[in-house]
Amino acid sequence: MGESSITWVDGAVETIDQRALPHEVRPLRLTTVDQVIDAIATLAIRGAPAIGVSGAFGVALAAFAHPGDPDRVAAEAARIEAARPTAVNLSWGVRRALAKLTDGPAGVLAEAQAMLAEDGRVNRAAADHAADLIQRLCPDRPLRMLTHCNTGRLATTAFGTAIGALRVLHARGAIDSVLVDETRPLLQGARLTTWELAEAGIPHRLTVDSAAAWAMATGQVDCVVVGADRITADGSVANKIGTYGLALAARHHGIPFIVVAPESTRDPATATGADIVVEERGAAEITHIGDYAAAPADTAVFNPAFDVTPPELVTAVVTENGLIDDPTSGAQATEGAVTHPPALADSAGAAAVAELSGQLYARGWMPGTAGNISVRESPSAPVATAVITGSGLSKGELAPADMVRVRIEDSRPVAGHRRPSAETTIHTAVYRSTDAGAVVHVHSPHATAASVGATKTLRFSGFELIKGLRATDAIDIPVFPNHADVAMIGAEIEHHLRTHPDAPPVLFIAGHGITAWGADLAQARDRAECLEALCELASLTGRRDIATDRLLEEQPQ
């Protein structure tokens, strides 16, 4: 396949029949409007940008077939536009080409060819912007990406949008692997995306759609990147069915969810996602696999081709102009405006977290990129937020701009260039369950060693340091199992704190580290120090229980 998957040759549209892939690269030559409509409706040509350009060429075919009859050409254009209702690019391409009808058939064709030429430049620019953003959100490591459906040259005529971003990242040496959803029911991921990734030499694995959330839960995904068929004025994203579920799973696991699409996919005339007409396709796509009946005859079917992801689940929408305004930020968006998530360089909380991170890194409590610290922001704000250390960064080199603001309610990042710590849900669980003003999660050596093999609680008694943890003679410190699913740890901590309101302000995560909290960063740090010192004393003495009454009796009179 050449750089462009669609061309105009000798009065016809030439492309690849995507229905035949990956087993056969079957050329498709379209010379009539009916053939263009059929190719779009049957998914021989698919992908929002590709059907937009194909629709424009369809108008050119109509113009050459009916010269001097603008009403007939307009009627043919309306038929093309109706071939698939959800992707806005089809309507955009048809109307843009039709607007040149006053220049004659040659003018319509020239406009369609201009759109084709633009597509590659637009997609490459969007892909570059998206790759830049992904590397800011997930820095300093080879990336494990997940993508859905097909967004490469087949879907866009040239280079690709989401797959384009993967191509850019691969060229930069930043890709570890790509997990490809098969994309039921027509398997665009399995048939088309794997074919394009193999062609580009990008390492990848294929998975069933329903395994994607588990891949996130088990730490196999750093970022999700998808395309779009329509983006409404409020930022809702219509895309291949299954996208909404991916966005929900990504939000739950604190994973960036990036949408890459051309500006032509944005539809400011459609106010919200609820206003999008979602195409439903035939039952046979689900009830049959090829000619084989996979379900009993006459089984009722629900087969939407697309779903709509609400804007609050989307980390960013990236076009050829960069990162578009966040429609949920409350700011009035400017048409075509470009912005980036605000950094937190001017936040006092961010500066304090960065300073303490450096101190604890120097003590060996936050080795490498491990550990995280957060501080609750103003309790009078309309939305409760906290500032937390960014993920994947050395805690000895953090600057305030490396912090991320997250919502305490759902751990969602709302400001900052970085991806929030993978353990954000532990911090927000503490904030939701207590009046803590700051949380410190570290891997101090003696406390971590003490928690190895421990279950439920570790009891300390007789040590003076216990008083620093809101106890007197004895303290029972809970130990939580270390799951791959950090959100599960957070849920267990929140349940414990809500059902044990007098629980100490520290806890262990078995074999992993400790979490401490307090009214402010200083108190949270002090409590972490007390727990580490307790564990060091226990290690030195071989005892967590000091019989203070017997020791007093043995002292000389």
UniProtKB/TrEMBL annotation:
Keywords: Amino-acid biosynthesis, Isomerase, Lyase, Metal-binding, Methionine biosynthesis, Zinc
Pathway(s) this gene product operates in, as recorded in its UniProt entry: Amino-acid biosynthesis; L-methionine biosynthesis via salvage pathway; L-methionine from S-methyl-5-thio-alpha-D-ribose 1-phosphate: step 1/6
Signal sequence, start to end: none
UniProt binding sites for substrate: 46-48, 84, 188, 239-240
Sequence ranges assigned to domain Class II aldolase/adducin N-terminal in this UniProt record: 351-539
Alphabetical GO biological process terms: L-methionine salvage from methylthioadenosine
Active-site residues from the entry: 229
Name recorded for this polypeptide: Methylthioribose-1-phosphate isomerase
Gene from which this protein is expressed: mtnA
